[in-house]
Design goal:
The complex is a heterodimer.
Chain A lengths: L2 E10 L7 E11 L4 E5 L6 H6 L9 E6 L2 E3 L8 H7 E4 L12 H11 L4 H14 L16 H13 L5 E5 L7 H17 L3 E6 L2 H7 L2 E6 L2 E6 L1 H4 L3 H6 L6 H13 L10 H18 L1
Parallel strand pairs in A: 3-8, 3-9, 6-7, 7-8
Antiparallel strand pairs in A: 1-2, 1-4, 4-5, 9-10
Helix pairs in contact in A: 3-4, 3-5, 4-5
Chain B lengths: L15 H4 L2 H14 L6 H17 L4 H7 L1 H17 L5 E5 L2 E4 H27 L2 H12 L9 H31 L9 H6 L2 H24 L18 H20 L2
Antiparallel strand pairs in B: 1-2
Helix pairs in contact in B: 2-6, 3-6, 3-11, 5-6, 7-8, 8-10
Classes of the chains: A alpha/beta, B mainly alpha.
Chain lengths: 290, 265
């Protein structure tokens, strides 16, 4: 689903002492199948932005286009349910939305609302349980018996079971242990690849944005502050620090390395092992020279 | 949904009314509510309306905002007016509406009762607009203090009140968050047959209750961890004090009441 925002603004409680503009003349577009990270510090408008993606909020001026759906201030969007079916949002702390007696019922809740048949649901449940790495033995248990991390997985499974085309993740790993964070981010990435999803990740973690996203949008006070490739964005240390953000550790390391050894070490998207190899060759090379 | 209803909504400012001691405000408002019922002609109602308007202006809150917040009660006020119009049978018959006789006394009474109703709501909403919930409970605690002699748990009552007031916005936010999450999972709160809409409340209420209980437990733990053990010997961070401005308020209010008794019949 192609997504485009055209001069979108959103003002909460207009004409009251509590008037607050959360989004201010924001324009960008996201191509189908891309993985976009939206970064910004608290209060920059990220949460307001994602609520425009499935019509929970409408822009107070401007226009949002989600595929064939249009959201505009005075227009009544027909069939908003069809839009919500295609845009799955995993909110912050999604475990707070669990309510059914059993995990199975809770996962089935979304698909059922969107008119999936029982057969379809029974087919999807094992798939999503596997995706979030929960054992199927748990299906008859109450979601409230689980640990926090497991509850999070159940809630995410409930969103995945809707079979969305666009997956929106609002800090999905907040409050998880480091290993769980890595597992979960890897899981989303492999789903993104295998299901050909359009993924939008809202995050504080520069590391995650660099690792997984192929496009980054940085918000500041409801406005777009920067946009582009992670490789281009995350090397601009001074500019990022203007908005209380910092460069990812990997790049910080490479910069320090460059300075120390006065060698060019541009960042190329690569994993730790490759990075280690490059560094090894540089270090060894220097030893021979010295 | 909550944004249009201002009853119970505090608007910060530095106005005279905001700076009054909450006890002063509560006593004056309590007396005002009682004495509104003593007004019995247009002069006395006009006098009280003038006073209420003067108070509303001196809160420095935009009048449009106060008026907008009263929208839900306009209906009740208009309803009261028409009820009196048709039910009261005093004075001369002025004219008939589809066979119903309308008496001159009915119009007068309808207008007066509607004004009374309007004044009550306007004046009491002024308390919550200019006083934080914490100030209100502090005031209640001190005002009820004499009841301690009869073993009435004043402190506990005040604590319960301040905790519940404190958590109303939190729970509302939480409810909004959960309803958004469930709406994203295809729950439709706004359209469809009544039966479906009632059922749609379950996925909202269950998580809300769960989190309310969790919050209560965490709060109790946090309070105990910081040594809370009831009201005995507990001092206040913001001690209430009656100052000169409060005396002025009482003097003005006495003046208003004297005026009321001169003007009424």
């Amino acid at each position: 689903m192609d997504i485009s925002f055209k001069n979108v603004s959103h003002t909460y409680q207009p004409n009251s002492p509590f008037e607050y503009t959360a989004l201010n003349d924001l324009s960008f577009s996201i191509d189908r199948g891309s993985y976009v990270a939206i970064v910004g510090h608290t209060g920059s408008g990220k949460s307001t932005l994602i609520q425009h993606l499935n019509g929970l909020l409408k822009p107070t001026s401007g226009q949002v286009k989600m595929g064939d759906f249009t959201l505009a201030p005075d227009e009544k969007t027909s069939n908003i349910k069809m839009l919500r079916k295609q845009v799955g949002i995993v909110f912050q702390y999604p475990e707070h939305q669990l309510f059914e007696e059993t995990i199975e019922k809770d996962i089935a809740f979304g698909p059922k609302n969107f008119g999936a048949t029982d057969d379809e649901i029974q087919e999807r449940i094992p798939k999503v349980m596997q995706a979030v790495q929960l054992s199927e033995d748990l299906l008859d248990r109450s979601p409230f018996d689980l640990s926090g991390g497991q509850m999070r997985r159940v809630a995410i499974a409930g969103v995945l079971a809707m079979n969305p085309r666009v997956l929106v993740l609002d800090e999905p790993t907040a409050g998880l242990d480091p290993k769980g964070q890595k597992e979960m981010m890897d899981m989303f990435y492999s789903l993104h690849e295998s299901e050909d999803l359009t993924t939008i990740l809202v995050t504080h973690s520069m590391e995650d944005a660099l690792e997984y996203a192929d496009h980054v949008i940085i918000l500041e006070n409801g406005k777009k502050f920067m946009e582009g490739n992670p490789e281009d964005i995350f090397v601009q240390k001074e500019k990022l620090q203007q908005v209380q953000l910092d460069i990812p550790e990997k790049i910080a390391f490479l910069k320090a390395f460059e300075e120390r050894f006065s060698r060019d070490m541009p960042y190329v998207h690569s994993d730790m092992k490759q990075l280690a190899k490059t560094i090894q060759s540089v270090v060894k090379g220097d030893e021979i020279d010295g | 949904m909550a944004s249009s209803l201002i009853i119970g909504q505090y608007v910060p400012s530095q106005s005279m009314i905001h700076r009054l001691d909450p006890r002063t405000k509560m006593i004056i408002i309590f007396l005002f509510v009682v004495f509104v019922f003593f007004a019995n002609n247009f002069m006395s109602y006009g006098w009280l309306t003038l006073f209420a308007a003067f108070t509303a202006l001196s809160t420095k809150i935009r009048l449009r905002y106060i008026a907008k917040g009263l929208t839900p009660v306009w209906f009740l006020i208009v309803f009261t007016f028409f009820l009196h119009l048709f039910v009261t049978h005093e004075g001369d018959i002025l004219f008939r509406i589809i066979g119903f006789p309308i008496y001159s006394g009915a119009i007068a009474q309808g207008i007066q009762i509607s004004i009374r109703f309007f004044l009550l709501i306007l004046f009491t909403s002024m308390l919550t607009l200019t006083t934080t919930p914490i100030e209100i409970t502090d005031a209640i605690e001190t005002l009820l203090n004499p009841l301690k002699r009869f073993r009435f748990p004043v402190h506990e009552l005040a604590l319960m009140m301040s905790i519940s007031l404190r958590f109303i916005p939190t729970l509302m936010q939480e409810a909004e968050k959960i309803s958004k999450a469930q709406a994203s999972r295809g729950v439709d709160f706004k359209t469809g047959p009544i039966k479906d809409r009632i059922q749609a409340v379950v996925p909202l209420l269950v998580p809300l209750f769960v989190s309310a209980f969790k919050r209560a437990e965490e709060l109790a733990m946090a309070m105990e961890a910081r040594g809370y053990q009831g009201g005995e010997g507990r001092t206040k961070l913001r001690a209430l004090a009656i100052e000169r401005i409060d005396w002025y308020a009482f003097i003005i209010f006495t003046f208003v009441l004297t005026g009321l008794f001169i003007l009424r019949q």
